[in-house]
TrEMBL record:
Keywords carried by this UniProt record: Coiled coil, Membrane, Transmembrane, Transmembrane helix
Superkingdom, taxonomy of origin: Bacteria
Protein known as: Efflux RND transporter periplasmic adaptor subunit
Keyword Nucleotide-binding: no
Biased composition (Low complexity): 1-22
Record flagged with keyword Glycoprotein: no
Organism the protein comes from: Streptomyces flavalbus
Taxonomic classification: Bacteria, Bacillati, Actinomycetota, Actinomycetes, Kitasatosporales
Residue ranges of the TM segments: 50-70
Amino acid sequence: MAEAAAVTNEETETGTGAETVADSQAVHGDQPEREPAPAPGPRRRRTRRVLVALGVLAAVGGAAAAGVGLRDGGGSGERADGGLPPATAKVTRQTLQDSHTADGELGYGTSTTATGRVPGTVTWLPDSGERVTRGEALYRVDDEPVVLLYGTVPAYRELRPGTEGRDVRQLEGNLKALGHDGFTVDDTYTEATAAAVRQWQADLGLAETGTVAPQRVVFAPAAVRVDALETEEGAATGPGQRVLSYTATAQAVTVELDTADRRLAETGAKVSVELPDGTRVDGRISEVSTEVDAGNGGDAEPTTKVRVLVALDGAKARAAAESYVLASVDVSFTAGEREDVLTVPVAALVALPEGGFGVEVVDEGGGGTSYVPVRTGLFAGGRVEISGAGIAEGTTVGMPG
């Protein structure tokens, strides 16, 4: 709609090419007698207005629009060389990619902090870099374990017979995976569930209460890797106090993009990761989030960044990255790709008075130029995909000087 609006404004302001030339001369003080506008013809030159940029910007985004070649209306309708454009380009056939390469950090993704919920003394901590799996102690307080279980619902209430909800199903699923049975995995905490919990508590050396206190379990989506220790053995701990931080166990790449490049980051999209030794491996976007940096105070203004988490895709990619614990890498994003299409430089596009875009086709036999309507496709790398009658590979089109 913005594209159409730009063309409508052009018709209102410029009229014919001759009127534009006269108006431009009048503004600069040279006021020749105005002649009647010539009748429209197939070779009448249409002016290029800066308003075209608004239409392209709305249609394809600022990154592509920045390369649009535009001519101001003043004096552009006639040329001293007989009406030929000051420069030309060829229509080429190629594969067009809307891509971008950004710096990334190879690590283990987002770090999560485990805070103490049991008052007491820290009696055991894992080593930094250690892997903790379902049913194992994440740390110990007063020599009793705080246990890692798998799930996405945080422990927020005591679970006992009669409790219902998705956190009950989550707990029962973990009990089943740990080898306990005699109950149905569902949303209801029954006496059969309580019996399985007592058996599990006995295995851990805990009091066999048949209820699960929220401070005794930590839920994570999968196994975790201990990232950093926030306290030490022998230190007092309690509600809200940091104990340790953890990440996923699989290596991942973290990338920060400008908001203008948000189109590149779609969850599930494939990317290419270049490791420090030059090896290229496949990756896949697993998470996209927008973060606001408030700055360091003073006159610093907040900045918004798009944070992208990239998982290494496949055993081959993970094996290639194993030797790098933390490293800087290059990540190549592709937002769109068009194979075997006709393209021209974006600057070759012309806004047509009747609407849409065209290109100025140059007659190789010296017969001048004509404007040919085109359909536009993907914009990338300063070029744009075009199609239309009379457009073929090798066609010469006009360009601004």
